[in-house]
Every structure is written in C-alpha cells, then in structure tokens.
Specification:
The structure is a homotetramer.
Chain A: H1 9-20, E1 27-34, E2 37-44, H2 47-53, E3 58-64, H3 73-90, E4 99-103, H4 114-120, H5 126-131, E5 143-146, H6 151-154, H7 158-169, E6 173-182, E7 191-195, H8 214-217, E8 221-231, H9 232-249, H10 255-263, H11 266-277, E9 284-288, H12 291-310
Parallel strand pairs in A: 4-5, 4-6, 6-8
Antiparallel strand pairs in A: 1-2, 2-3, 3-7, 7-8, 8-9
C-alpha cells in the first residue's frame, strides 16, 4: 500500500496521515522532545495496525537529532545516552546473559557500511568472561559481535551465517545494526530507529535481506537502523510533488492543470518515475557529499550508546582501551 | 546560458543542439567509433564558439565506453591505449621534458578521490633521472606527481600549492586529473574528457576550484576529467522532462496541459527545482551504489593510459614494480 | 623439541637436518625447480615423522619464489598457476561440490590481514548456483567465503564461527588461508605452504588459534599459509648465531670462548633470549618496511591461484567482474 | 660517534653518559615528572655540545608517557595539554601569524604515516581568515597544512615541495611532524620530541629527508617527532648486550669469556651486526604488532595538542566540527 521506499515506522505513519488525515488504527504514538532530540515511540499493538504499517507488532522508537550534522560533541554524547536509555526500556542486560551484536551490510559500499563500522567499535567481552573471568570488571556484560558481510561477498545468506553462529554461541539476545533507506534527505545520519521486532525481509540499503527475528533465531532480536541513503526514485517523486505545489502557489499559468499531477494516484506516479529512471533504479542512491564522514560519526554514536547500554558501569571514555 | 551543471563539452553541445537544432558556430566536431569506444573530438576554434560553450578555445576529446561498467578487462586495456594515443595527439613527451601530474580532489570523499587515486598508481621517475640517471630504462620520461588536497583540508588554494611546486620543479607540462559532474548518470565512470585548455575555474565535483592553465602556471596544462557524480537538481530535472514526455505518450488525460511544463523555459524550471531542493543543493550527489568500485576501476584505466603515454616503451604489466 | 617459532614444514625439516645431519624418519621429501619457483613436497607418512615434525601426517607443499619481492607480474602469474596446479593434486573440484574459503586473521593488523584480503578477491559463486543456476558459466564451481575475524574482535572462537557456518552451508571442502611466522626474513611474502591436514592449534601470526581439520569440521581442510612476519626472538637468535660464526671466522681474540655460545643448547639459548626480550615477546614483530604492499601482492597471487583452481574455465583477467 | 640509529636527543645523551659517565659539555638538562608524564628539557647551548650530540644548538623537549599504550583517555588528554604548553614555551601564536603544519612521511607505510595522520585531524582555518573573516571565532589562529608525500611517491624532494608552498603561503612558522626511529621498543608511540631547530637531514623513518629549518625555509621550524619503529640492527644489538649481562649474572660457565663480547667496541659490534643482518638492513623494522592502532592513538594526541596550542580558546571536544 505504501510502496515508497522507507524502512522507518515514523515515515510510514506520516504517509498514512498525509493521505487519511487520521491516526492508524491499532497503533499508539507518543512523542517527546528532550533538548535537541525528538523521541517518537510507536507501538503497533493490533494486527490491523501491523497490516497497514507493513511491519510486525511491537515497539518502534525513533530518535531524531538533526544537529548531528553540525558535529556537536555534546549532542553526540546525549544521543548515545538517550539510545542506551531507550534500549534499556525494551531489553534488559545482566552479567549472566550474552548479547550477540550483528553488523549487517557491505563494508565496501560506504552508505551500507554502518553495521560493520559499529561492531568495530564495540567493547567485546565474551571471551574475557570465558577465559579470564577474574579479570572482568563489575557492570560489564558478555558481548560478542560479528559482521557477516553480504550475499555478493560471501555467497552465503546473511541469515544462514547468523543462524550458524547463534547455534554455537547461544546468545540470550541479538542486536542487529543496519543501514536504512529514508524518504527524506534530512534524516540521513540523524535519525535512529530501534525496534524490538527484529529485521524484516527486504529492508535495508542492501536489498534482499532475510528476516532476523525471534522466529528465525530463537532469541529476541533488537534492530537498530539509521537511514544512510534516499532512494533516487523517492527523491525525484518528492521533488515533483514539491514542485507542483510551488508552481500552483506561484500562480503559474495553467495552474488548474498541475492539479492533475497532484491528484494522480501516488502509486501510479511512483511507478511512472521508476519507469523513467529505469534502468538505474535499485542502483542509484542519493547521499550527502560528505557521506564518508557522516557514517563515521553516526557509527561512533551507535557504538557508544551500545557500550553504555551493555556495560553500564564503564566510563564511555575508557571504552576504547577494551577495543581491539 | 547553459546553466545546468555539466563539465563536459559534449553535453554542452548536446544541450545546444536540442534547443537550436544546429551545430554551434565556431566549433568543429568529429565523431568516430572504435570497437566499444566512441570518440568525439570537439574543437572550439573561434571566440564565438567559446562564448556559447562557456569554455576556452581548444581541443576537447571525449572517450565514451559504457562497457566499462561491466568490468571487461580487455575493454579496460583498450580504453587505456586509446587514451594514451589521444593524449599523444595533443601533446608530445620525450626524455628531456618533465611532466607534473596533479591529482585534484578530496581523498576523503569517494566520488572526489579520482585524482589522488590516479597519481597513486603512476610510474614516478623524475627522482631516478635526477639521482640515478644510469638506471633509467629507455622509453621512460621524467614524471612527478602531487595530490594537493582541497581548500577545506589544507587551508591553501589548490592553485597556490601547484604554482609553488611548479616554480620549484619547473615541469614542461602539467597534466591535471579531476572528477567532474555530468548531466547523465550513464556517463558516470564511463566517459573520459581530455582538454588541452587546462581546468576552468569552478569546474569539478568540488566547487570553487581555481583556474589551472598556461596563463596561471606558465606551461601547457592538459586536463583529464571523468564524471563521477550527477548533481541532484540536474537529475530531478531530467526525470521531470522524461516523465512529462512519458505522460503525454501514454495519452493521460490533461495531456495538453503537460505541454505547459514541457514548454517552460529550461532556466525557469531549473531554478524552480533548485528552490525546491534547497537547502540540499550543492551537497547532494547522486551516484551509483557501487561508486567505490567504479572509482577504483576508472582510476586504474587512467593511470595505465598515462603510464603508456608517458613511458611508451614500458610494458603496462610491469609498471607496478615501479610504483611506490 | 624444535620450539623456535616456525609454521613451515620445510623449516622444521631444515632445523632437524642442521642438527642431526640426516632426513627425518617417516618423511618423504621431493624438491623440484620450475623457472624461478622452487617446489618442495614433504609427505609425512609415518607417526614417527609426525611426532618429530610436530605436525599431523599428510602432505605439505611449499612454493618458494624470492622474485615476488621484485614485483614481476609474469612471476606473479606463474606462481598463481603453480599454486592452482599443486592444489588440484591434493584436492579435486567439480560443479557438484561446494568449497568454503575461510580467511583467517585480523584485518586491522597488516601482517595478519592476509586471509581477509584473499577472500575479498575471490570469485564467489555459490549464491548464483542457488538463485540463478541458468546464469552459471561452464567450468565454474560453487564457492563461498567468510572472514571470521579474531577472538579479540568478535569475542567468539574462530573455530566456533566456522563450525556454525559449516553446519549451515555443508560445504564439501574447506580451504583456510592464514598468515604464518617464519624463521627467515627472506621467506616473508615469498613462500606459500599448502597442507592437506588443516590448521594446527596455535599456528599463525595470531596466537591461540583452534584446530581446523576434518576432525573438527567433518570435511577435508586444505590450509594455505604464507609467512608475513618473523618473530623478534627468532630473529635475535639467528643474529646471534650468525654473529658468533662471523666472530670465529674473523679470528677474533677469545675465539675459543664463543664456541661456548655456539654450543649452548638451542632451547636454553632461545629461552634466554625470550627472557631478555620480555616483556615484548609475543607482541613484537619484525617485518619489511613495505609490508602493506607485500600483503597486497601476495594476497592477489593467492586469490588468483584459488580462482584458477576453483573455476578452471574462467580467464583470470575476467575474474574481477565476478567480484563484488 | 654515536652511530646507532636514534633521532632522540635524550637517547644520544643516554648513550654518552653510559660510556663517559658524565654530562655532555655545552648541554643543559632539566627533568621533571608531572603525573604519568616525564618531561626532559635538553638545551644545547654551545657548539661543542652540538658536535657531540650531532644536532644543532637549540631546545629539545621530550615527553615520555609509557601509559599511552594502555589507552587511558585521561592520559591522552593530559599529554595533549602538556604538549600544547611546552610548544607555547618555545613559540608564540597569535591571530596575525600563520602556521603551516607539514605532515612528513609515507601514508602507504603504516609506521611512516604519522605526519599525514596528524595533518588530517587538525583544525584548518587559514582559508576562513581569508574568505570569511567575520566567521572566525576568537582565540583561533590561521592554520594551514600539507602532507607532501615522499620522494618515491612524488618524484619531488619533500623540501622542494615545502619551499614552493612556503614561498606562496608565506607562513610565520612551520611545524613539521615526523615519525622517528628509537633505540628502545618501549619508546615506540609513547615518547614525543619537540625541537625548535627543525628537521636534520637524514632523520626520520624514511631515509634521505632533506633539512627543514630556518636556513632552508626562512621562517622558524618546530619539529615534533614520535618514534614508531626500532631499527632491527639496533634491537639485535640491545638483545645481545642484555643477553651477555644475563649470562654473566646467571654464572654460566665461561662467564669470563662473555666479558670479551661486553667489552667489544660498540662501533665494532654494531658494524658486525649490520653485516650479519645484511642484506635486510634499512628495510627491516621492528614494531609492536598493534602498530596500526598505536599510530591512530598517538596521532590523535599530537593533533589535539596542536589544536590546543594553535587555537587556545576552542574546546578540544568541539574541534572535530572544524575538521574537513
């Protein structure tokens, strides 16, 4: 129904509201602002809501902090702390339960390298618990991590690799990090979505990912995603919408006719754009020019947030010395 | 006049012809095809042509090889050899004349890193001529290279750095490599433009570059450029044009009205799109998802072509052993 | 018995011969030279030989090509082809059997990054067999690959990850790539060892690796290793040995006394050096300064060799287009 | 006289004292400890001292903080602040004087990449002073930076490039960052030397560097160096020394004879080792295995120290947003 490419629950809801002018049934929404961070908690609590949203029932928490682009270190730290706090609302850690963090995506493609970048900066401790338990500091929990690569690199479904590792490591919880597509350029690298429902098939910047969830892995799966691209067709669509609005406002001659364009079915228009963009679609991405730097910043924020969540007593500034 | 962002002479000419249905006065054009490579030689020989094209008088040679995207190694080699041959048509090398290759662009921004990538793979020999002249192989000419970075990295105008180096090294020729913007996504990483007129101010993926030419450097400057991005506004514009055409063809209701859009002044429409895309414009780039790989491939092709041009007697497969 | 740090069967044998002046019992050795490549095939066929060598019974083939350091591309190709041929002597590939290539080592530590570098350049095909079997070219076999990282990065034993993946993928053969330690600096990046006995515990540049063998994985394991470091204690030891020899030859006064040093038990001397080097030992490595380049070269040679072995009908120069 | 490879004034002095049991004439030394940082200020104030030390007259300040290897972030920050303070003792910055920072070394060779890594993390402001002077914050001074590469990469003497840039930029001060060789492994990445005498010819990890000093550049040159390697011959020599001591202490039979070795002329012994290590010498380096990480850490410390020194009113944690 809402076929424009978005992985964010907040965007699906926005699209619905724009068209229907009402809240989605079976969905509860709570919005708060804390300093420069906007927190939207979407709970899909009924099947009907899940159908409309195209996402499983559960919690979808979104942190929006546009200031991240200005590289303010205090905001970086606040976002990390807020992320840790929101994670601890939907999942609990203790020294007896092991967390496996999975960094999804392709390390050779900048906007898809978010997951591997995050796992690289985590404080990994499971092996210390196993081999040198007396050296474990208080307030640290067992954490291990893997970046399984993508199908084109390994020839193996990401889901298969993770299932294989889970069957050996037997973690109590999986946290999966993924790069997402957004409808809006301003969300790239500034919005973080947490979901306690895992990863749906086909989400993410890389197409064709398999489901990672309690159903497929046998343990709870928390997904953390950040938009790193806008799909080119979506952007073109948004540009046309805004342009038609602008032309009407500017009282261009022929104003009544543009209404035709505005009143076209969304679906029809999007399909037309895709045809026009063909053969690029699926390969083209729109990113800010400084995407390399943005990925570094946001992956640092995610890693810090996870380190605070998973090792509550460790001072964030000392985490680095535990990192390989 | 032709304000849509393009650095390619062939595209400026195309735009002119689309609108005026005739060749640009003061410009000679010669098109040939060799296997999978299309070669367009544009010569601007009169002031009038230079004014319309917005480029100085001189030679602009374009190699187009869409097959590069399929990663065919034979084609890679053919393009390198064709590049070397076209270079030797507009410039001559011998063992008594030194070439300084300048790799323009920002190595931290993937689509702008073409220049530095090329200089990294050149066979550098000037110091051997200077310190171990007896070790110089036949058919090798003195080559040195520098990647001066960009203003945001160094705090120094690229042109100043190059002038400083030129004043010391006193080369007989400068070859400047740069990443360009194209109007067409299919040109990204598949089209190479050679010009014997140097680099114009403000060209390139990075904005605000200074002129590099015989006027500013005192020696001939050959520019080699490859499109690595499409500017987002240009892409949106093209999508809208194609879409309107498509709608008219599909006999949509209101067909006569879309003609309004089609008949809008190019300039007016582009300005409108820019407003709509604001505040992104200038930062947003559209690239193929696999841009990291494409930059590696095309910079290898350029470096090989330059190595063949500058060291005619060295077997390309042995070049690597000369590379630091 | 032969405790000096070496992972190479040819070196263990050399050490034995230096001391005992005879061939190791239960071991067959065959040496040939082909152009600039020396091939030593060591077969341990009796338990006694295995005990003395400290390695399991099986085949150990060593290719030595010191010319690799001169970066001669023809030699690179010859070594790749010889590697492919020697691999096909001890293992057979066909379109019905799947190969899992495992790139051992730490991608953040240059001399330990050989394995991950090799898997990055392989032609991966298993997913094409699975999802687009009609697109599979003739002479291609199903290949998948994984770089599992190291304990400090993942918190998970490498062996566990591989066992997990093997249990899902069910390959017919595992090929494990690893960086080794050598006794001799001249072997770094110029010697390749192939073994059909898998990886022994504790081998490799990274300490504490677990066994990877038919016993632990249930399928044949071919190990391919290349020395990338010399351990600092070993080098110091060799220097002292050579120095003592040199001093005696130079008829230094006190010559008889140096014989004391020469006649010290190897073990005793090595322990002493280790004490002296303490607390560095285990962390210090001796490498050529240009190790970054050497790793790139030799991993390219290995990847090409494996591509030829696994996809016999594909022209090496076209392999790149299959690589993600 | 003191031919063992060291670039550190403190080490030259140590060697002298070991042999002569007295302070070098014409040299003043002041040692203080502040927390975990040892500061040694060596002033060569007479020609005689300069001759013995093999270094020009001037100030050589050494910070030693072995704790850096433990990756303690508080210590990182303390070292940065101490570096800034010591720099401001020997040089003054203000908003009217421009600093050019030069990052010496080869970015493709990990232990030689210190200089380029530091310049990459500096807060560059000269262009803001020039083009947007109204946007300059208080307490910021004009800074520009360049990493000129090495002879093998550019074909141009580093000194020539810097002279060319200095002639254009006309800075009031040059700060040159360089990777050094040390005699002692424990100094690698934990010792920082500041000198107000510039860079001497032939110093640094890369051999054959030209002099950078007030004489060659016309403005004061501050050199900041950090040992990143130990030369292999030096290490072997130290091992032998320590080993002989250890053997004597352990009352090994033949104890009197080892005294021969101990009493050999330093020079004679070093020459012997070099012969023995030949043909490796000059190429072989000994580094900690985790050198990649150590370079990142120490270059961050240097960049922060320079940012504090050059932009006294900017909060270090906000520096990042000024960086490219």
């Amino acid at each position: 129904m809402f076929s424009k490419k978005t992985d964010l629950a907040v965007e699906t809801r926005e699209l619905y509201q724009e068209q229907k002018q009402q809240e989605i049934p079976g969905v509860r929404v709570d919005v708060t602002e804390e300093g420069d961070i906007k927190i939207t908690r979407v709970e899909i609590f009924e099947k009907k809501g899940a159908e409309i949203m195209g996402k499983p029932m559960g919690n979808y928490i979104t942190l929006e902090a546009p200031g991240i682009k200005k590289r303010d270190k205090d905001l970086f730290e606040n976002v990390s702390r807020t992320l840790a706090r929101e994670l601890s609302r939907i999942s609990r850690t203790d020294t007896d339960s092991t967390t496996l963090v999975v960094g999804l995506g392709n390390w050779n493609v900048t906007p898809d390298s978010l997951g591997p970048e995050v796992t690289d900066s985590l404080m990994i401790t499971r092996h210390v618990f196993e081999y040198l338990p007396e050296q474990v500091d208080e307030g640290v929990t067992p954490v291990c991590a893997i970046s399984p690569g993508v199908l084109g690199i390994t020839g193996i479904e990401t889901g298969e690799i993770i299932q294989g590792v889970v069957s050996r490591v037997k973690p109590d919880r999986v946290v999966a990090i993924d790069a997402l597509a957004s409808r809006k350029m301003e969300r790239v690298s500034t919005t973080i979505q947490i979901a306690d429902t895992g990863i749906s098939p086909g989400s993410g910047v890389g197409s064709g990912r398999k489901e990672l969830s309690r159903e497929t892995l046998g343990v709870p799966v928390i997904a953390i995603g950040v938009p790193t691209v806008v799909d080119a067709a979506t952007m073109a669509n948004d540009v046309i919408d805004k342009m038609v609005d602008a032309m009407i406002q500017q009282a261009h001659k022929g104003q009544e006719f543009f209404e035709v364009l505005r009143n076209m079915q969304e679906e029809e228009k999007y399909t037309l754009i895709k045809e026009v963009l063909n053969p690029y679609v699926g390969n083209l991405v729109v990113t800010p020019k400084e995407i390399d730097q943005l990925i570094k910043d946001i992956s640092g924020i995610l890693a810090n947030g996870l380190n605070i969540f998973l090792h509550p007593s460790v001072d964030p500034k000392d985490v680095d010395r535990y990192i390989n």
